[in-house]
Specification:
Elements (H helix, E strand, L loop, with lengths): L15 E9 L3 E8 L2 E8 L5 H13 L9 E5 L4 E5 L9 H7 L7 H19 L4 E2 L7 H5 L2 E3 L5 E3 L7 E2 L42 H16 L4 H7 L1 H7 L10 H15 L5
Antiparallel strand pairs: 1-2, 2-3, 3-5, 4-5, 6-9, 7-8
């Protein structure tokens, strides 16, 4: 936002002009809207049975309000189930390929590495930030995960959809399960998949933690690198790190902080290397 302003509230809703639909899911629909000449994103609850998810999103936005890694909260009206956030015209990270093709396409892989570092820093903030250790549950395939991230005007990534960020606290023996349905595919971590004979039963699943995000991080980074030229050198340089992200045992995987550290080290190497 261009200037500071207190959060908008229920009394401001009549002055907000709803424009076009920019996104919709099970929990909410999001519209481009205009308030006092400023474009914002207005989210409305879609289904009452997802009210707790909608409220969780708002609570997380409040907690992470000062974070540069999370979309800025502009206002809310809890009685009407409306949440207002900063608008980003590039949309989510599913649009990156089109954005880079039409606006800005670097000749080398360090822009892809910048996106990897950006994402790792988001994970580090979730895992070690003001809300405790939070896990990105709404990320069961690459496209779904990318849809949770917005692309800013200066091509930074920020977390946008905070409906499903459950808390892990090992001191209290508090782990998580991402939903009540069976998760399948190589993108989700092994501990998130059904490992037994017979039909899926959520009660038989063991809980898990933030290392599920690390399992996915290697695939996310490799996707970002695929968007630009010269990624082969970086894929080779990051091979061991990304291999460690895919260790079957979660405790053997690196932390988000370690991902940030190594991506930074490789970025520094790139400054002195022509790909």
């Amino acid at each position: 936002m261009m200037q500071c302003h207190q959060w908008l509230g229920c009394t401001d809703l009549p002055s907000i002009s709803i424009q076009d639909l920019i996104g919709s899911g099970a929990v909410k629909s999001v519209y481009r809207a205009i308030w006092n000449g400023t474009t914002v994103a207005a989210a409305f609850l879609n289904n009452g049975k997802y009210l707790s998810d909608f409220k969780h999103n708002l609570n997380m936005l409040k907690i992470f309000n000062q974070s540069r890694f999370v979309v800025q909260l502009v206002g809310f009206c809890e009685s009407e189930n409306v949440v207002l956030t900063e608008y980003h015209k590039f949309g989510n990270a599913l649009n990156l390929q089109r954005i880079l093709r039409t606006r800005y396409m670097p000749n080398h892989a360090n822009f892809g590495l910048k996106l990897c570092l950006n994402y790792a820093m988001i994970l580090d903030h979730l895992h070690n930030g003001p809300a405790g250790t939070r896990v990105m549950c709404d990320s069961n395939d690459l496209n779904k995960l990318l849809s949770q991230l917005l692309v800013t005007q200066d091509l930074q990534l920020i977390l946008n959809d905070l409906d499903a960020l459950p808390l892990v606290d090992y001191r209290l023996n508090l782990t998580i399960k991402c939903g009540l349905q069976e998760l399948r595919g190589d993108f989700v971590a092994p501990e998130q998949r059904w490992q037994f004979e017979g039909n899926f039963e959520v009660d038989k699943m063991a809980g898990y933690g933030e290392k599920t995000d690390i399992w996915k991080a290697a695939s996310v980074c490799e996707y970002f690198l695929s968007l630009v030229a010269g990624e082969d050198v970086l894929l080779y340089r990051l091979f061991d790190l990304h291999k460690s992200c895919k260790y079957f045992l979660p405790e053997l995987r690196p932390s988000a902080k370690q991902l940030v550290q190594i991506y930074k080290e490789v970025a520094e190497e790139l400054e002195h290397t022509e790909l």
